């Protein structure tokens, strides 16, 4: 309705505003509003058009192009995380306000990147039509037929289950290492390894996703199952930083592939012409899961704080959810054969 470029620029401005406002009051509830709600809305407006535009511009090598395009988040995890100990000390001195707001100009630089993306079609004159309300236009643009697509619904449920635990390792890797008696100065390298391996996973799995002999859905399922297994084994890594880096790298590589392949598999299910609507609905499932998953893990860790491994059950449960999210996708080819859709591409997975 408004185009990928305009929406992404607005999202960058909104996210920058949220981070900038967070400097004025060092209060967790204020952060929920500024960073959580305002920043979250901004990032959502940036993320969806960025993913959709890559798929629209690239036909033959869309997976590889998408892997490169989204590898920047892995770079951020790898380079910015070592600052965390100093940031925590600044928080204690309430100097974090300036630190958090310093992210605002970084986010606003997305305006430059989004502005240079050329439109795929030339500008054309449009005749005036009766004006409609903003929400009326949104409802008109939504394709409710997606909710009748059982393969898409199953794919959304799978992403919900996966997203319940995907932030667990990112948010609690340091706490898990601390509970496991890993040397403090070495703990930073654990999440750094997630970022580095995530970059490799996004690019390599994106490259594999463009090979004709690779089944997108099967590769996607493998990344989910490996991510879940990495989450499950994390509490058993002991006090050695090497073993923690091992599970973190395995998770980072496979989860990076998951993020790369998500829109690719979605196109196979609903078709490229419905990608924007379908991906928006999918992000709703993912966002809700991420919003409730991390607090539940934290609450479970506190509940089991007297145990030798307080993170054992949270990691086992949410890791199993990720494995389950991959396993249930084996049903998609059967659902598509049962009720074919004109916009769907057959996805054949050998169930063995």
Low-confidence stretches: 95-102, 108-116, 123-127, 342-352
Shape: globular
CATH architecture of the largest domain: Up-down Bundle
**Range of helix content:** over 70%
Q: Which band does the percent of strand residues land in?
A: under 5%
Straight-line N-to-C gap: 44 Å
Number of domains: 2
Individual helix count: 16
- Computed Rg: 21 Å
Q: Total number of β-strand segments?
A: 0
Transmembrane segments: 6-22, 29-50, 151-170, 190-209, 216-236, 242-267, 279-300, 312-335
Pfam families: MFS_1
Domain Major facilitator superfamily (MFS) profile: 151-352
GO molecular function, one term: monocarboxylic acid transmembrane transporter activity
Secondary-structure blueprint:
Elements: H1 4-21, H2 28-57, H3 62-69, H4 72-80, H5 84-92, H6 96-101, H7 103-108, H8 110-115, H9 134-141, H10 150-179, H11 188-209, H12 216-233, H13 241-270, H14 275-303, H15 312-327, H16 332-338
InterPro entries: MFS, MFS_dom, MFS_trans_sf, Proton-linked_MCT
Transmembrane segments: 6-22, 29-50, 151-170, 190-209, 216-236, 242-267, 279-300, 312-335
Protein name: Major facilitator superfamily (MFS) profile domain-containing protein
């Amino acid at each position: 309705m408004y185009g990928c470029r305009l929406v992404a620029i607005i999202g960058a401005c909104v996210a920058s505003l949220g981070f900038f406002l967070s400097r004025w009051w060092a209060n967790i509830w204020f952060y929920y509003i500024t960073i959580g709600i305002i920043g979250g809305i901004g990032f959502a407006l940036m993320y969806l058009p960025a993913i959709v535009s890559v798929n629209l511009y690239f036909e033959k090598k869309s997976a590889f192009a998408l892997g490169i395009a989204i590898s920047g988040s892995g770079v951020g995890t790898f380079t910015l995380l070592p600052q965390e100990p100093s940031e925590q000390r600044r928080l204690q001195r309430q100097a974090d306000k300036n630190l958090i707001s310093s992210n605002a100009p970084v986010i606003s630089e997305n305006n430059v990147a989004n502005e240079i993306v050329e439109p795929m079609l030339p500008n054309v004159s449009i005749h005036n039509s009766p004006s409609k309300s903003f929400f009326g236009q949104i409802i008109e643009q939504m394709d409710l037929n997606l909710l009748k697509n059982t393969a898409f619904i199953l794919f959304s449920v799978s992403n919900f289950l996966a997203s319940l635990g995907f932030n667990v390792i990112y948010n609690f890797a340091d706490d898990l290492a601390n509970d496991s008696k890993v040397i403090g100065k070495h703990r930073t390298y654990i999440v750094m390894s997630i970022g580095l391996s995530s970059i490799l996973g996004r690019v390599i799995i994106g490259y594999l996703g463009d090979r004709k002999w690779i089944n997108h859905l099967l590769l996607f399922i493998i990344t989910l199952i490996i991510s879940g297994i990495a989450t499950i084994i994390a509490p058993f890594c002991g006090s050695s930083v090497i073993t923690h880096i091992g599970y973190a790298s395995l998770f980072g590589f496979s989860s990076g592939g998951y993020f790369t392949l998500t829109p690719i598999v979605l196109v196979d299910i609903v078709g490229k012409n419905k990608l924007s609507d379908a991906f928006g609905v999918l992000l709703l499932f993912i966002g809700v899961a991420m919003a409730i998953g991390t607090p539940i893990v934290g609450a479970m860790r506190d509940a089991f704080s007297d145990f030798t491994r307080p993170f054992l059950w949270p990691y086992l449960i949410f890791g199993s959810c990720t494995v389950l999210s991959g396993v249930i996708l084996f049903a998609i080819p059967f659902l598509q054969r049962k009720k074919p859709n004109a916009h769907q591409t057959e996805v054949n997975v050998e169930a063995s």
